[in-house]
Amino acid sequence: MLFGFALPNSLDVDGLCRFARAADELGFDSLWAGDHIVLPEAPTNQYPYTTDGSFRPGNTPFLEVVTLLSYVAAHTKRIRIGTTVLIVPYRHPLLQAKMMATLDVLTGGRAICGVGVGWLEKEFDALGVSYADRGALTDESLQIFKTAWSDEPLTFKGQFFNIDGVLAYPKPVQKPCIPIWVGGHSKRAIQRTVAYGDAWHPTRQTPEYVEGLLPYLRERTEALGRDFSEIAISLKRSLHFTDLGILDASTVQSNGAVVGTTQAVIEDVLRCWDMGIHQLTYDFRTADFDHCVRMLEHFAEAVVPKVESRA
Kind of pairing, strands 2-6 and 162-166? Predict the structure, then answer.
């Protein structure tokens, strides 16, 4: 079982670097950051991770994702760096392929390209991108990513993009290309994973929900002639230890969140392992870096050894 942690949404640059260094030095597998360019002024009811769709953005400081990851990566040595997730329709695919290839080169081959179609219609409108076409835009873009990262000249003719005989350099360090982790919890996301991805990366779902879709993932994988074991399963959720006494648990209410004692968290990890989940990625619903680092340390000290002893 591998463990990743999302960077808190914060403008405290020293705190972000301290968090990244701690995750690296404690031996965790990956660091992640999310992607928003603008947020709506008013609340929306489109959010896919609450029961009523409610989302109140406030003034959450989303730093530009690849710039942020490049910066914190310079303060780490070995931990992998990923987007959770890059909203693919927001940028031209050649630009995004260049950004991720650059991140991979600068980190010595540590980049993970987590991708999603997006959900916030107001953001699409502000960027002048078709919300209705977001799935098809993403599919074409992922095809362009993979060709741009290969050694072949890039020629692509699709519904949205027409590219003829160009070369994209530098190439990523990772071969044959940067790993693509497909976000989303729908069957369409699973289809996209099988067609273009290396991992299925649903967010804010319960382990049981993920387990319930694994037969469909296997079915689609076999139908496309791929080996099911080639596709990693990663689940991202919020995490809070109720026995550390450092944060009010009521602030961590979100779909699929892990809120419990250390023993309950250990049992949840082992249950996910038994279900066939390969990586768990967590975020902390606080921007207090003392609290965040303490939870990282506690996870490394109290949870990881129990999981490793099971192996």
Answer: unpaired
Ramachandran bin of 244, using left for φ above 0, alpha for ψ from -120 to 50, beta for the remaining angles: alpha
Query: What residues contact residue 86 under an 8 Å CB cut-off, 6+ apart?
Result: 35, 65, 66, 96, 100, 113, 114, 115, 116
Cα 137 from Cα 131, distance rounded (Å): 10
Q: Report all structural domains of the chain as residue ranges with CATH numbers, in order of start.
A: 2-310 (3.20.20.30)
Phi, psi of 32 (to 5 degrees): -135, 155
Mean pLDDT calculated for residue range 161-167: 94
Alpha carbons 186 and 178: distance in angstroms, whole number: 23
Q: Is 152 exposed, middle or buried (0-12, 13-18, 19+ CB in 10 A)?
A: exposed
pLDDT digits (tens, 9 = 90+) for 20-66: 999 999 999 999 999 999 998 888 888 887 777 787 766 788 999 99
pLDDT tens column, 251-288: 665 678 999 999 999 999 999 999 999 999 999 988 89
- The candidate with the shortest Cα–Cα distance to 203, out of 293, 83, 67, is 83
Mark out the alpha helices in 149-287 (DSSP H runs). Answer: 187-196, 207-223, 262-275
> pLDDT higher for 249 or 217?
217
| 25 CB neighbour count, 10 Å cutoff | 15
Helix, coil or strand: residue 156: strand
Extended beta strands in the chain, E state: 2-6, 30-33, 80-83, 86-87, 111-116, 154-157, 162-166, 180-183, 199-201, 232-241, 258-260, 279-283
Whether the per-residue pLDDT at 237 is higher than 80: the answer is yes
Q: Residue type for 214, please?
A: L
Nearest to 84 by CA among 187, 231, 237: 237
